[in-house]
Amino acid sequence: MQVSELLRSKGLRRFAENLLSMTTLNVASFLFPLILVPILLARLGQINYGIVLFVQSTMAYLLGFTDFGFSLTGTKLISRDRGSSNRVREVFWMIILTKLVLFCLASAAMVFVHAKTPLLKYDGELFMWGAVQVLGNILLLDWYFRGINELRAVSIFGFVARGLSFVALLLLVHEPQDYLLVLQVNGMVTMIMGLAVTVAIVRRVG
What we know:
Layout: H1 2-67, H2 70-81, H3 85-116, H4 124-139, H5 142-147, H6 151-172, H7 179-205
Helix pairs in contact: 1-3, 1-4, 1-6, 1-7, 2-3, 3-4, 4-7, 6-7
């Protein structure tokens, strides 16, 4: 009875930690844009900020394509096989490599569309930095942390990335011509965080 009670208490503590972690991340995801969007709109102007939003919206399709449902299936597979290090390693590398291949294919398609479609005649560098942010999101590996029930890690990395971008954008973006900086900051911060996470997990998984 004491052992079962201890297990239940540990489970409750883990549940409470995960709940608090994701609540913190969700609050930050709501508050940071709530503060930042009016400031960027005032500094960049409607046209330039609209360009930023258009690029980010376009990248949302790229991110959705590269996800390919792995946020659900990857979490399920890792959770099911987390007792086997060999199986976790196989699943981890299968998903990472598949997502990277999808990213390359989608990026190539986007380059072609950008070159052929008049509606996308914005500077290609804008889309490049948007793609960098997508790649950084791929490398954040939130599906892996969900699979091993470490939502606190998802919250910490997500909060730090959003916090760094928030501070950097407030300090660096001042004039309408700084609209490229918005995409550069978001891209670089997300990529750095993604690389740090991936290196740490690769050392852990092997």
